[in-house]
Amino acid sequence: MKTISENKMHGGVQAVYEHRSDACDCDMRVAVFTPPQLLNEGVGKVPALIWLSGLTCTEQNFITKAGAQRMAAELGIVIIAPDTSPRGDHVPDTEDRYDFGKGAGFYLDATVMPWMENYAMETYIRDELTYWIRENLPHVNPQRVGIFGHSMGGHGALTLHLKNPTLFKTCSAFSPIVAPTQVPWGRKAFEGYLGDNESRWANYDATKLVLKQPSEAHILIDQGSEDEFLKEHLRPELFDLACQKMEQKLTLRMQDGYDHSYYFIASFIDDHIKWHYEALKSG
User: Fold this and answer.
1) Any catalytic annotation for residue 151?
2) Active-site hit among 175, 227, 233, 272
3) How much is the pLDDT for 42?
């Protein structure tokens, strides 16, 4: 593990590390906020949240724009924010698309060449990142980990939670892509990464997954009413209907006047951190 940066913030430390990923065959960066309570000796294990960012982002967007560290410091919770895709000159990319390639890993394991050699973000988050946390963040209780994210990262949080509810015990999302097999963002990405066999796509669609395997968690979703991608790419009503059918506990809040930006995330991030903390603190 290589330390890229460390900065004091709200009494804690916001750091960025780099480590090797075998799944993605590259070095990956991950940001970690350590609350001030853990800087003192004798503190027991604490809960943690994994944040998954959206299209075009790195680990930097969340830690510099969301303002999550203040509430994390107050509650004594660790926040871990990995990058959104593999990186490096050897990693394939596109020149004319922001929604495919670097910065757009979609938290899946690609099965089509050349993408399958590096784009294994599901395995990275589920297996390697959680192992890295256990090995390098011993103050984190691995039985008290939640997951949340934004847009593409909201899609990743929902699917990773629904498929691994004991690993990621709580889940929330901002403006998630809830039904990628039914919207342009998802269909274009899935065809590129997974091929034209649509039977493979369902494994990465939260709306389809919840119809097969609802979780015991109470999921929180915030969606801005003025989000420019709402009607074409996000469509939260599809997930809401599936949750109602399966009695999956869901709170879907339509936030009047808010868009898709980090201004929206920063406005409600405290709610999400407290939502997870209340569910995880006794875990």
Assistant:
1) yes
2) 227
3) 59
Name residues whose C-beta falls within 8 Å of residue 263's C-beta, 6 or more positions apart in sequence: none
> How many domains does the chain divide into?
1
The single residue of 150, 161, 233, 260 carrying the catalytic annotation is 260
> Residue 186's closest CA among 92, 103, 100?
100
Tell me the sheet residues that pair with 219: 250
Predicted model pTM: 0.97
Local structure of 104: helix, strand or coil: strand
| 238-253: pLDDT as tens digits | 999 999 999 999 999 9
**CA 86/CA 24 separation, integer angstroms:** 6
The CATH number covering residue 192 comes to: 3.40.50.1820
The average pLDDT across 64-78 equals 97
The residue annotated as part of the active site, out of 85, 151, 175, 215, is 151
Active site residue 270: no
pLDDT digits (tens, 9 = 90+) for 165-178: 999 999 999 999 99
d(CA 234, CA 283): 32
Find the domain containing 198 and state its range.
2-280
Helices (H), 177-252: 184-194, 206-212, 236-246
The whole-number pLDDT of residue 281 equals 85
260: annotated active-site residue: yes
